[in-house]
UniProtKB/TrEMBL annotation:
Keywords: ATP-binding, DNA damage, DNA recombination, DNA repair, DNA-binding, Nucleotide-binding, Nucleus
Pfam families: HHH_XRCC3_RpoA, Rad51
Subcellular location: Nucleus
Name of the protein described by the UniProt record: DNA repair protein XRCC3-like isoform X1
Length: 348
């Protein structure tokens, strides 16, 4: 990363480099965290020299000047400015998501039990391993389980489905061997994973998708009512660490979240129960994209060559995202995959 580049490699006079090293300012990051006055005091350099240091560091960290919006659309757009997305694995859902899930920040997939959260993330785990030209990342996956054990049997079903639906691209991929699983049972283990184990894995392996299933499980049960402030602080710490991992390693970070029921009192005679993602405002402010999955009363009739299958219809709703308006669509979970549907199509 440019931030970690050593000062000695920059185009600066030897006396300035020596002054920086004497002050133990050995990287670009250590210089950028100081104001001009602090830098001058620690290095005893003149104002002109400090300006030269800041210029050299800035050019190293941000080597290019401005780029026009038009150039962002061209094939020769710099790779680090291309807005990349991870396909959902379904053309209809990708159309709704305008290409897939944004590879920036932290994406939350919230929903009640049996709404399809884990099913959707398992499909993303397979899609991430496919080539980039069909919406994949050509990379491995880190899957962190905090509740149930990893659903290996269901994964094998989806693997057979993706090999059937995309035989050319999927035939040479050993999907199971590219999903690294960690089972975590308490907050302490989560800190060790996010601070040490996960970054080490990302340095050793080409992992570009990280899934935490789920983030609410640990933070709901390990804090008492008198520890609300501490829980909010720990959630913010976790969020910042995940954002840093996403930025440093160019990875997609997806957190599955549970939901809670809150009472919405519009008046004495108008008391309603509202379903919202868990963990409150402290966590909501750290999420870049929030998607909610839910069950519906609709049933989808799928006709195969031998029999008719009735599948529960589920709803995918974008609550907020930097690139999407609030909207919703519908999907079903089949033995082979998760795919979008239209309510006008075989639904009752």
């Amino acid at each position: 990363m440019p931030y970690s580049k050593e000062i000695g490699n920059l185009l600066l006079p030897p006396r300035i480099v020596e002054a920086l090293k004497k002050a133990k300012l050995n990287t670009c990051k250590s210089v950028l965290t100081l104001s001009d006055l602090e830098l001058s005091k620690q290095t005893k350099l003149s104002q002109r020299d400090v300006y030269a240091v800041k210029q050299a560091v800035s050019q190293e960290v941000l080597p290019r000047s401005f780029i026009t919006a038009y150039k962002l659309q061209l094939p020769e757009c710099p790779p680090d400015l291309v807005i990349r997305k991870l396909s959902s694995g379904c053309p209809m859902l990708d159309q709704f998501l305008r290409g897939g899930l944004l590879m920036r920040g932290v994406t939350e997939i919230a929903g009640e039990s049996a709404s399809g959260k884990t099913q959707f993330c398992l499909q993303l785990s397979l899609q991430a391993q496919l080539p980039e030209y069909i919406g994949g990342l050509n990379a491995a996956v880190a899957y962190i389980c905090t509740e149930d054990s990893f659903p290996s049997k269901r994964l094998q079903q989806l693997i057979q489905g993706i090999k059937k639906n995309k035989p050319h691209e999927a035939s040479k991929i050993n999907f199971s061997d590219q999903i690294y699983i960690s089972q975590i049972g308490d907050v302490e283990s989560m800190w060790k994973c996010v601070k040490v184990t996960l970054p080490n894995l990302l340095r050793l392996k080409k992992v570009k998708l990280i899934i935490i299933d789920s983030v609410a499980a640990l933070f709901r049960c390990e804090y008492d009512l008198n520890q609300i402030a501490q829980r909010a602080h720990d959630l913010q710490t976790l969020g910042h660490l995940l954002h840093k991992i996403a930025l440093d390693f160019g990875a997609v970070v997806i957190c599955i979240n549970q939901v809670s029921a809150v009472v919405d009192q519009g008046g004495r005679s108008n008391v309603q129960e509202k379903i919202v993602p868990s963990l409150g405002l402290a966590w909501s402010n750290l999420v870049t994209t929030r998607v909610m999955l839910s069950r519906t009363s609709y049933v989808y009739k799928e006709t195969t060559t031998q029999l008719k299958v009735y599948l529960p219809v589920r709803k995918l709703q974008v609550l907020y995202a930097p690139n999407l308006p609030p909207n919703h669509t519908y999907f079903v979970v089949t033995p082979d995959c998760v795919r979008g549907i239209s309510l006008d199509e075989n639904c009752s």
